[in-house]
Design goal:
The structure is a homodimer.
Chain A: H1 5-18, E1 23-24, H2 26-33, H3 37-54, E2 57-62, E3 68-73, H4 77-91, H5 106-109, H6 112-125, E4 133-137, H7 142-152, E5 156-159, E6 170-176, E7 183-189, E8 198-206, H8 210-221, E9 225-235, E10 247-256, E11 261-266, H9 269-274
Parallel strand pairs in A: 4-5, 4-8, 8-9, 9-10
Antiparallel strand pairs in A: 1-3, 2-3, 6-7, 10-11
Protein name (chains A, B): Pur operon repressor
Family (chains A, B): Belongs to the purine/pyrimidine phosphoribosyltransferase family. PurR subfamily.
Keywords (chains A, B): DNA-binding, Transcription, Transcription regulation
Chain lengths: ~280, ~280
């Protein structure tokens, strides 16, 4: 359909937002709107400036015949800070404390707007890495994994604790949970992951890192590589961390069940985000 | 920040897309851009026309002091048809057949772009109902539930087959699986659902409907109401369906394990979508 500039700007903005990390040839837009490439270029400059000013992300232009424009979702560092602050605040509510010192986070992980923001933060900090797939373990990490994968334009694979008939043949490993020291099993559908894939691991919570370490071992079975590790909450005071390089948004530094106190700090997200 | 019309259109489009089913007062935008309300109104008219023309959804204007503008995600019926066709095509691939006549759908449910489209379809068909929360059962329905909830701007709650310490106190029921006739348990965190809530149930697959029927019974324990039921795939040839009113995108009409044939038809989505 033929559209004027104002209509094109609205439609192109919607299109780019819905196709992150995809190279869109300029001819696609010039045919879509029956407009000259020079007009499309001008439109894209306006979108690029607005996106960068507002911290939505960047538009990267790839020149040449095989070129085009790519939207890379991002976030201003100030906005990321405000989001981490608000998550910390919500998580610190004393009524979250469960028997045994566990934290009730189900409502936070059930809020799509928080999940999307957390996903955007991980997608922006891992934007420059080569990532073919996002991996998580059932159940609580699933929404975060999809939010990240959505912004990176890659599929999600889900590791389970038991195999299901609808998964077909599976690969399973035994691993030792870092905190409880119990032997557990995790399972991944054989056909869900190609050999040599670059995998971003996302999860909601990391104590000693046993579960994530299990996922890393599982990846070895598939001859796949760890492209990065991101967790929403890490806990402090772990004797021996099984995982070295990871990015966390929030760090749980203290839980006082009797005094009903939950202490939280920023995770190491900003160390990574500030790196040039 | 002060923005010209072109920049405002880009930023407002992004803002509205990220705040579906939220009433945004016009003063929010006029303060955000330091622009007159009359200019904002003109901008919104352009966005509304483009969204409606392109099948992105509608912008609804609520007049008066407490008024504003609301983005209701939608989809053209032709696009919905094309999506259902492409899902049917992908699902019909013979290598999806697993022993026992089960279908491997993990890759389809692992593709965020498909999941988002399916979510948008359910969100548009249920757009006019009063919905406070989207409910699903772990694990496969989770991404679909979040996609729908995202477009409806409501939280997600997840029913589990076993209770976990991080959920706090729970309500559990026993139910009979419609196809296997086995007694099973499902569990929901007590504090995850308020009394009187209107709940949209979303799942990936429905045979006789035992699981969904179980969720309906669980809702009764919470004095909550079923606002609607949506499933990606329903199967035909079920003796007695336990659930009456639901919307399906695809119907599995035949599986021939020996001949490696999978037969699929459209679900009842269009009957509902075409209703005025």
């Amino acid at each position: 359909m033929k559209l004027r500039r104002s209509g094109r700007l609205v439609d192109m903005t919607n299109y780019m937002l819905n196709h992150p990390h995809s190279l869109v040839p300029l001819t696609y837009f010039s045919e879509r709107y029956q407009s000259a490439k020079s007009s499309i270029s001008e439109d894209l400059t306006i979108i690029k400036q607005t996106f960068e000013q507002q911290g939505v992300g960047s538009l990267q232009t790839v020149p040449g015949a095989a070129g085009g424009v790519k939207f890379v979702p991002g976030m201003h560092i100030e906005e990321a800070g405000a989001i981490i602050d608000s998550i910390k605040k919500r998580m610190a509510a004393p009524d979250r404390l469960l028997p045994g010192g566990y934290l009730y986070l189900t409502d936070i992980l059930g809020d799509p707007s928080i999940v999307n923001k957390v996903g955007r933060m991980f997608a922006s900090v891992f934007a420059e890495r080569k990532i073919d797939v996002v991996m998580t373990v059932a159940t609580k990490g699933i929404p975060l994994a999809y939010a990240v994968a959505n912004d990176l334009n890659v599929p999600v694979i889900i590791v389970r604790k038991d195999s299901k008939v609808t998964e077909g043949s599976t690969v399973s490993i035994n691993y030792v949970s870092g905190s409880s020291k119990r032997i557990q099993t995790m399972v991944l559908a054989k056909r869900s992951l190609k050999e040599g894939s670059n995998v971003l691991i996302i999860d909601d919570f990391m104590k000693a890192g046993g579960t994530i370490n299990g996922m890393v071992s599982l990846l070895e079975e598939f001859q796949a590589k760890v492209a990065g590790i991101g967790v929403l909450v890490e806990t402090k005071g772990v004797e021996e961390r099984l995982v070295d390089e990871y990015i966390s948004l929030v760090k749980l530094t203290g839980v006082d069940v009797k005094g009903k106190q939950i202490e939280l700090q920023e995770g190491n997200f900003f160390d990574a985000a500030k790196r040039p």
